[in-house]
UniProtKB/TrEMBL annotation:
Belongs to the enoyl-CoA hydratase/isomerase family. CDD domains: crotonase-like. It comes from Desmodus rotundus (Vampire bat). Transmembrane segments: none annotated. This is Enoyl-CoA delta isomerase 1, mitochondrial. One of its GO terms (cellular component) is mitochondrial matrix. Gene3D superfamilies: 2-enoyl-CoA Hydratase, Chain A, domain 1, 6.10.250.170. GO terms for biological process: fatty acid beta-oxidation. Homotrimer. Pfam families: ECH_1.
Amino acid sequence: MALVAGMRVGSRVLFRPWAWLPGAALGRKESAARGRVGARGFGSQRVLVEPDPAAGIAVMKLKSPPVNSLSLELLTEFVISLEKLENDKTFRGIILTSDCPGVFSAGLDLMEMCGKNPAHYAEYWKAVQELWLRLYLSNLVLIAAINGACPAGGCLISLTCDYRVLADNPKYVIGLNETLLGIVAPFWFKDTLVNTIGHRTSERALQLGILFPPAEALQVGMVDKVVPEDQVQSTALSVMAQWLSIPDHARQLTKNMMRKATADRLVKQRDSDIQNFVGFISRDSIQKSLQVYLGKLRQKKG
Ligand SMILES: CCCCC/C=C\C/C=C\C=C\CC(=O)SCCNC(=O)CCNC(=O)[C@H](O)C(C)(C)COP(=O)(O)OP(=O)(O)OC[C@H]1O[C@@H](n2cnc3c(N)ncnc32)[C@H](O)[C@@H]1OP(=O)(O)O
């Protein structure tokens, strides 16, 4: 069975994020997802969407306490909310931020990658791929208002955005720190980073698993602006206004031209990428590394 839940329409692949949900009622979910968003807020348990139709934008807040780790549920709700906004012509941009104090996102949920079976790992990885593809190729302007720590998968999400504003707090570090966990960032995480900060800086950042504090993140180009914490949202809004002053069709075609080759690399090998992940994460040595890392996270408190 093909692992990729998508269908081809002309040259475009439409992904159906719920198609891999266990027991998903496709028709009902599909029609709900295609409804107009309107002026009232919508969202789900873990993704809050505050639409401003007059401005053509929506603020999307991740709210999966305590740390917005990217569980299968959060990934699913995230993709569904994104698709709703993508399908509603009212919306031209999204500001992506966190509703969890001090953390943008702790990255992939370690509990999804520990002690589970291969079928679960495959389902989980497919959901991670899906979110990345959706975000990376989004026609909307995506601005990350990073109001907290932003490691690993959290950083990846911010890197898919068109612009990153980071709050100036030394605790709000950002980077792909996978090697510190004894794991390896997949090629498409690496590609996304290289496209943002260049090859040499990525090589050093990835091998050392560097989590950059705000001033350094700005210096290497991991973020575009660092502002006082209480100005993150307003800065994101004014940056959005600038991006929305560009005609959509020209901006969208340009974005696609810049990003398509990178996305296509994953699209062409989604299944083998899933198999690689499942094989890698199922290794005893990797499971042990993740357990040790989780133990350290828990010990930190006590
Ligand atoms: C060669 C082939 C290659 C193929 C590819 C193969 C593999 C690639 C595989 C994976 C790629 C993974 C990318 C990732 O995203 S891995 C996740 C990395 N994330 C981190 O390192 C962040 C860890 N967390 C933190 O540093 C802190 O929690 C944080 C700074 C975010 C917040 O600190 P704070 O002090 O506020 O909160 P804590 O007390 O630390 O945490 C509260 C609570 O949450 C739990 N937790 C934290 N992070 C995670 C997580 N990512 N997943 C699950 N759970 C998490 C933490 O353990 C605490 O739990 P508890 O003690 O209250 O039970």
